[in-house]
Structures are given as structure tokens and as C-alpha cells.
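TASK: fixed-backbone design
INPUT:
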């Protein structure tokens, strides 16, 4: 199964961002939008794993501790930084150093469960949309969202989430851990 560890912003923060994104839907060169119910902040992408490893992963994640964080969704950008954009993302502000520390502890725990992770550096963001190769990328969309600033919210937990791919992709929360 395909899994990742993430933080899901609360409904009020997602709703606020969705209002800003709605104003960009008709702009030329808009990406294929990710539905708001799938916006999340990935802390560690585990990829395809065997179901038999879930208990081992959960046991290691049980050891991760942390305090609640205050964040806000803010700004926008694209990946890659150079060349033809493929991903439109929203950034975050607030307790970013504590968030990075949490992501690092989660990644250490997952590696201790003998799961190989990508070596890509942690870049806190929510994926808002994607462009297919050759699609015209609309810098108007980026300009419209670059100055976005959403309401603050508290992060009180992180989750292990399964991604179901296919024509109707969806996420399933397998387990959650509190931050105190």
C-alpha cells in the first residue's frame, strides 16, 4: 500500500485557501487542481510498503514526541524552482523550525522501522495543482496566490495516511498521534 505521514490543516484553514484558489480557477494556464479535501502537509513519504510492516512503522512512530504547533498557509510557488513548472504549491509560516524538527524525528523513526525514504530535503507545502508536461503554465495563477495569507491554526496531531490511487483518488487515515 502507498502511505505517507502528514498533517492535515483544519477545515477553516482549508476553506479559506479554497476561497483564494476559486478565484484562480478560470485564469489562463491554470493547473489541474488538487481537490481541497486532499490538501495536506507531507512530513514523510513512505511510498509503497507491505501491509505486514505497518505494526513496525506504528511502533516507531509511537516514540515520536512533540508539542503542538501554530502555522498559517501563506504564499505560493512552483516546483521545480527552475525550468517548466510542474507543481503549484502553497507555503506555510509560523512554527516552521519546530515543524522541520518534527518531520526530522518522524523520518528518523520511519528509517528505524527499516523503511527507505527519499533523500529529498523537507520543504513544507501543500500541493494545490499540477501541470502536465507541455501544458502552458499560468504565471497569473502564481501571481494571484503569491501574496495569500490564511488564518493561523494549531497542529495537534500527525497522521499515517494511505493513498488510494485510481479514477477517484482518496486518502484514508490509518492512525494518528497527538502532539502535546
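OUTPUT:
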Amino acid at each position: 500500500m502507498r502511505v505517507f505521514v502528514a498533517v492535515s490543516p483544519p477545515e477553516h484553514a482549508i476553506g479559506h485557501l479554497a476561497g483564494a484558489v476559486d478565484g484562480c480557477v478560470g485564469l489562463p494556464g491554470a493547473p489541474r487542481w488538487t481537490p481541497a479535501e486532499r490538501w495536506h502537509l507531507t512530513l514523510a513519504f513512505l511510498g509503497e510498503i507491505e501491509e505486514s510492516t505497518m505494526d513496525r512503522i506504528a511502533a516507531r512512530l509511537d516514540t515520536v514526541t512533540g508539542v503542538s504547533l501554530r502555522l498559517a498557509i501563506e504564499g505560493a510557488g512552483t516546483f521545480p524552482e527552475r525550468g517548466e513548472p510542474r507543481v503549484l504549491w502553497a507555503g506555510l509560516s509560523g512554527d516552521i523550525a519546530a515543524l522541520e524538527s518534527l518531520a526530522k524525528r518522524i523520518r528518523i523513526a520511519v528509517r528505524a522501522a527499516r523503511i527507505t525514504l527519499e533523500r529529498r530535503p523537507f520543504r513544507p507545502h501543500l500541493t494545490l495543482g499540477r501541470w502536465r508536461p507541455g501544458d502552458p503554465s499560468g504565471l497569473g495563477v502564481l501571481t494571484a496566490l503569491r501574496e495569500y495569507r490564511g488564518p493561523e491554526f494549531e497542529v495537534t496531531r500527525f497522521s499515517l495516511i494511505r493513498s488510494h490511487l485510481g479514477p477517484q483518488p482518496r486518502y484514508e487515515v490509518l492512525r494518528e498521534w497527538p502532539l502535546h
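COMMENT: The longest strand covers residues 69-79.
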